[in-house]
Amino acid sequence: MASGKAVIRARPWAVASFLLPALLLLGALVLYPIGYSVWRSFFDASGDDFVGLDNFAEIFANESTRTALRNNLIWIILAPTVATALGLIFAVLTERLRWATAFKLLVFMPMAVSMLASGIIFRLVYEQNPERGLANAVMTTVHDTFAGSSSWPDAEPRPGGSLSAQDDGSYLLDGTVSAGTPVLLPLVAVPQPELADAEPAATAASDPGQVTGTVWMDFTRGGGGTRDAIDADERALAGVTVQAVRDGDVVAEADTAADGTFTLPAEDADGAQLRLAASSFTPPYNGASWLGPELITPAIIGAYVWMWAGFAMVLIAAGLASVPRETLEAARVDGANEWQVFRRITVPLLAPILAVVTVTLMINVLKIFDLVYIIAPSSSQADANVLALQLYISSFGAEPDQGLGSAIAVLLLLLVVPVIIFNLRRLRRENQR
């Protein structure tokens, strides 16, 4: 150290000549933009009138900026924590895998994908339509495995007909029914492709000891059919649950057969009202609204974690390789199980590395822009807003105000500085050990 100081004192011009290019580059690319942003933040949109701290006041008065601040807080808490936790789990698990190298390669591979490409990938993954969106395709497959879908989700009564829609999604027949008189329950609006395998509708038999009827699609393709009558080419709606309701209670129910007919016992259904159960008409399960206002921020954080969990895993695995194996083996010999070894020895020894990864990701998420801009559709982009995106919109949007944009940039800088100071102090303490 003393010899280095002696060189600096003996040849200051030589030292300055080596440092000058780097200092000029640092000043041009870092110091000047920071200084100009701070200066510009005190002026209005035109840059001519000095407004003082008005732009900073506008940040907290603007609803969009407050939403961005709230979302940034969510990002800072969730994204680094989840990415670091997954990286730690992957790093520990790969020590016990024979194909650890291949696993690490697969997990780290998303880091090679640009934010733009990742945003496009996850915009497709989160598509609402299960036929295009992978996430909802998986969700609907699992859901439909354990829960059956409704028979005819598109069917509905004809306006002005004998059936009326109820608040719970069921359809109620006006008036009561009598045994021996077949009941006609016509529905419409079922797409023709859904009727491709349906049988022709049949008129229910008249039986004095039973309440009978038919549920069918009251529409003749090409026209020419008779309203509220079963025509030759009209199709049955099988599997519809028909309920006999008396004083609000279901006293009998049956499902329609392949030809659309149903039968209810007269002792229960005679004089009751008929209701087509809502379960026969509920829309199919289409998964979650990933790109809607409620889930858009967690969904984008999921895309971020997919990219950066590999980064955390590689750094933590490097730190894990330096952990003394003797310490771990001694703990196992003393009777500690694997969870105790992990919680009381591995994690404390890896604390410096975990701090490095977490702080690095915290700085990174404060600057997040690409994923939010690409993944969030215009309908929910305001709900996914973050400070970097708000900076861009304020500076270059429909009503550009680079004074306000510069104020947001300064705010971002002020949010990053404490994290950087914490990281520098931690590094200094590590070097002094």
From TrEMBL:
Gene Ontology biological process terms from the UniProt entry? transmembrane transport
* The keyword Ribonucleoprotein appears for this protein: no
Q: GO CC: one term? A: plasma membrane
**Gene3D superfamilies documented for this protein:** MetI-like
Record PANTHER family: BLL4140 PROTEIN, DIACETYLCHITOBIOSE UPTAKE SYSTEM PERMEASE PROTEIN DASB
Cellular location of this protein?
Cell membrane
Q: Where are the transmembrane segments?
A: 12-34, 73-93, 105-126, 303-324, 345-369, 404-424
Q: How does it sit in the membrane?
A: Multi-pass membrane protein
Protein name as it appears in the record:
Sugar ABC transporter permease
For this protein, the record's Pfam families field holds: BPD_transp_1
PROSITE patterns in UniProt: ABC_TM1
> Which family does the record claim for this protein?
Belongs to the binding-protein-dependent transport system permease family.
Which keywords does this Swiss-Prot/TrEMBL entry list? Cell membrane, Membrane, Transmembrane, Transmembrane helix, Transport
Positions of the ABC transmembrane type-1 domain: 69-423
